[in-house]
């Protein structure tokens, strides 16, 4: 055997080769290169900075962390501080008491020890209490698996449910490509259902049913339904009635409901409200025996935006004890998630309350972030809708707009000549002309023949006018060049 | 379809069902239950505390974190502190300057942002510099993938290399069960090679060769060799000559060398020294084209023992650009590892130096931990070797002893009647009599017909006499009961 022959790329796991992950794909890598070029050769590009609108990463764009959360983290990282007099003038009183309370729940106050594989019990208690108060229905610490962000939880469930390429997972199209990537890595079949752009990315039960039956007729054993609410990349917030129907559908069809609820705090539409699927199921009278349900939450999103801390949890209900043992076993092979992320997950589900010293400043920080996000979403939506050939639904929630771009035939042909999907061609031209990074709709899936981009609402508010101006200028030139 | 039928345990992924992970398996779960019982019903068991010797988790047993590392983490978690006058009296000057230096390498000083999927470039530079200074051969930040501990890196490589059940990975027996678990989860074949207990857990190239040929003759495509150095659970430190032979073997046979080097700082034998496999390969004149090599390191081990922080890295050399792109893609699906762990990984590879304000206290903390671990290893080894039917090799490194227990036939039969492996039966009796938790050898693999336990050297030094006394008393009673 020739040396190193074993690692030729064609000899790698074909599931890995097949997997795609657009959010950090070609365009993001190209943007990194351009950013380096701006540093090493200033003035060599038609713009002076890269504007990252491709990924839900608020703090990379200047959003400041919530002070209270970071005070508690610092104190838990270096508990000696709690014994020093100076600490009282550097930290708020409730951050100090919260850190003490958290440390008291950690055996030996050891924030550097592996924890229980589901996460520290006291922190899971806090998370369960937060869910209970959010939903008005009880939650149980035994049902919580604290994870390094939502992604590892999603992988864990895919790993459990997918046996082979005949096992299917119903996923929305457009979808967050974590799902398509994870299904590909685990060798299953993505069974698509389409969100209806015309009704504000509505989720039609009739389409779900049709896709399920179609997949079953092809011999696919459909095991679970993924619902992302609020939607990514589509930004819609499901109506309560729609959620009832989804829960009923899962119960009737024997599907696991995988509820991606990481944007639960990001609601911008006055007439919309986040309802967890667990709350919906319980309010329908459905209990443990009716519906296997997993809810994913993350510290990366919301007003907290603590992506780099890699914290999150999944709440698992409706699974039998032997299945739960298998989930626990898989979690235990990675020992536990990081303790900083665990602490943060407990904090976002149990933030300062009225009467706490930090409450006023915490509330002010939270409101400022969420109100600003709502304004940014509206400004971008309005700007997109004013451009020729672009139509954009409202971002009711989450952190994204997903405008449709009606590309002229000439642009589609130019893309074809360049061996790119038309929307990827458009996104690449946008990047190269303006420094604005978006992800093309083909990375998320879309109705064939339609073209979209996903643009985050995350650039700081003072940069939004520049994004709009540059985008508009680019789009007009692009359309002038390719108009049929 | 009956509701919830899709999640009957027998319908889960058979790879998951097959996977075993003894370190957090039955005995660990039983120990957790007993610990709860001690809390709720004190006095109900023949011991007053559980002594966890089952897992390499130093801080859970009272080891204190290194002060300098935690100072830097706290400052990076809450950078506002750097602007306050009081901070100077609470933190060492070099922790303050290091935190500033780290924050300066993070775009926007944003410790709450997702980073590059390989980790923050400035931190990878620090890690590469640490490797260069350790080995005397250059290391490159582009080759570093910072990970949430070593385990996710191992999974990533298994995921890349294993296509199906005909792909084999050579693993030592005994081995750390992360490897068997990961190979099972990815559906590959574990190709065992035996470490020779008689020569202090020696790694014989002749056995490697024999097992490789045997596997190939069965149609297994052997893709990689796992070497754990210092050894887990076996505690041996490989001799330099042996490492040369291993590198040559991998080159000649076209195998990827997966080098688990997480115990690189844990060396207790005066005549032994840690050499990285990369240093060995480079000193043989082997470069990028000769050998695909992955080195795993973790912040969980060493004198730092920061298991809960989930930090680590893999250094990847000898892979082609297209293969590296695939590794990057898989890393990017999980976005990035946690930033606290990333910072810590850079700190352990670049600790305080002579002349830094913290150096003396850092050095004192480090030496005290490592010297105490060496004394604990010796005390336990001596104690084991004094007991009837127990023989125990020296722990030259790592954190474990793996004594062989020559169980009487009557005990083996009693185990059989209880449907347990004989060493699991012994370990369970030990736990129930003394509260001491060890892992049975069958969880790691062993020569058929031999029986072992893995016992960490991690209980604090003042508890070691109690461990020894209780163990001795138990063992004498056990042998009296079952002696043939």
UniProtKB/TrEMBL annotation, chains A, B:
<keyword id="KW-0032">Aminotransferase</keyword>
<protein>
    <recommendedName>
        <fullName>Alanine aminotransferase 2</fullName>
        <ecNumber>2.6.1.2</ecNumber>
    </recommendedName>
</protein>
<dbReference type="GO" id="GO:0004021">
    <property type="term" value="F:L-alanine:2-oxoglutarate aminotransferase activity"/>
</dbReference>
<keyword id="KW-0808">Transferase</keyword>
<comment type="subunit">
    <text>Homodimer.</text>
</comment>
<comment type="pathway">
    <text>Photosynthesis; C4 acid pathway.</text>
</comment>
<dbReference type="InterPro" id="IPR015422">
    <property type="entry name" value="PyrdxlP-dep_Trfase_small"/>
</dbReference>
<dbReference type="InterPro" id="IPR015421">
    <property type="entry name" value="PyrdxlP-dep_Trfase_major"/>
</dbReference>
<dbReference type="InterPro" id="IPR015424">
    <property type="entry name" value="PyrdxlP-dep_Trfase"/>
</dbReference>
<dbReference type="Pfam" id="PF00155">
    <property type="entry name" value="Aminotran_1_2"/>
</dbReference>
<comment type="function">
    <text>Transfer of C3 units between the cytosol of mesophyll and bundle sheath cells to maintain a nitrogen-carbon balance in the C4-dicarboxylic pathway.</text>
</comment>
<dbReference type="InterPro" id="IPR045088">
    <property type="entry name" value="ALAT1/2-like"/>
</dbReference>
<comment type="pathway">
    <text>Amino-acid degradation; L-alanine degradation via transaminase pathway; pyruvate from L-alanine: step 1/1.</text>
</comment>
<dbReference type="InterPro" id="IPR004839">
    <property type="entry name" value="Aminotransferase_I/II_large"/>
</dbReference>
<keyword id="KW-0663">Pyridoxal phosphate</keyword>
<dbReference type="GO" id="GO:0042853">
    <property type="term" value="P:L-alanine catabolic process"/>
</dbReference>
<feature type="domain" description="Aminotransferase class I/classII large">
    <location>
        <begin position="106"/>
        <end position="460"/>
    </location>
</feature>
<comment type="similarity">
    <text>Belongs to the class-I pyridoxal-phosphate-dependent aminotransferase family. Alanine aminotransferase subfamily.</text>
</comment>
<dbReference type="GO" id="GO:0030170">
    <property type="term" value="F:pyridoxal phosphate binding"/>
</dbReference>
